[in-house]
Amino acid sequence: MIDVPGAPFEVLLFGLFALLAIFGAIRVVTASDPFISALSLLFNFVSLGVLYLMLDQPFVALAQILVYAGAVVVLFLFVIAYLGDRRELAGDAVRARMLTPFAIVGSLALGAMLMGVIIAAKFPSTLDELPKTKAGFTFGSPRAIGEIFLTDYVLAFEVTSLVLLVAVIGGIVLGLTGRARHDRLRKLMQTRSADQQKKLVEQEERELKDRRRAQRAGGVTGSSTGTTKETTS
Amino acid sequence: MTVDPVWFVALSAVLFAIGAAGVLVRRNALVVLLSIEIMLNAGNLALVGFSRVHGAHDGQVFAITVMAIAASEVVVGLGIVVALSHMRRELDTDELAELHG
Question: Minimal CA–CA distance to A11: which of B96, B18, B72, B2?
């Protein structure tokens, strides 16, 4: 059951960073500009890092800041900057469809359900004295984590490294696939006169348009062309 | 520990619900990926909180593994987004329905 906590400083710290984390998360979901979303996510990650420190787990807190705030958010910002000023990136923040209210009610229900379970559950009392590992390292320290990873969880450790390798290969393959068309177009451009270049670009655009039109006509429901949106919203 | 761990778990539930709302409501593929990150972090917070309650390292090991998986997921997800943008497709989850049955 939830007890009203006593000592003020830690409680204040928790309240502050919990509110910051929730604020950041809400901004991620509501901001219409993905750039603002990514920066709000940074807010959320750093707040969670502080909360991990409060839970006596400095290594996880450090990994949180390095991996999430340092790598993941920066990667997101790079991609957003790379994609540049695309109209469909901004605006259109929320799905203008009949399903939106259901989605919001559904996620609220999910939150209420989780909270209900948490309030009803009986939590074990927290240990005041933290145990040391077999080798005598303190709880949550990098040494303790290293010891556990290389003894009890060595299989998980190895599998994780394999997953990372696969992700690296996947990232490269996806990048090359996306570039193929881009490169073909550029090579064509280099070998033709200005007049022919224009013709080639026009042809390419027309092909793309035709393909899209065919896709839409082929029964893709819920497309967001101007007319269909007006009728569904 | 003066703050009851139940508050950490409650915060993780709130963050998870917000992330789920983002995945369901937003149509920009990038923001959907960001919302998934919120949900993963909410799960991590619960793992780390329970790890502190029991004084066991298993939760932390799990949380760090989740971080590695999340990083891989971001690489592949953003790779797909960039590939789509090269093909001059819109990053709209309603438009990207080729695999729709």
Answer: B2
**Inter-chain contact B54–A177, Cβ cutoff 8 Å?**
no
Verify whether the Cβ–Cβ distance B27 to A95 is below 8 Å. Answer: yes
Please report the domains of chain B, with CATH numbers, ordered by start residue.
Answer: 5-86 (1.10.287.3510)
Residues of B in contact with A103 (CB under 8 A): 21, 24-25
ipTM: 0.90
* B28: β partners: B92
- Check if the beta carbon of residue A207 is closer than 8 Å to that of residue A181: no
**Secondary structure element (H or E) that encloses residue B91, with its range:** none
Out of B55, B68, B76, closest to residue A160 by CB: B68
Are B33 and B63 spatial neighbours (Cβ–Cβ below 8 Å)?
Answer: no
Enter the tokens of residue A147.
């010891």
* Alpha carbon B44 to its chain's center: 9
Span A185-193, mean pLDDT? 65
> Can you give the residue ranges of every domain in chain A?
153-218
Give the confidence band of B1 by pLDDT, cuts at 50, 70, 90: low
The answer on pLDDT for A101 being more than 90 is: no
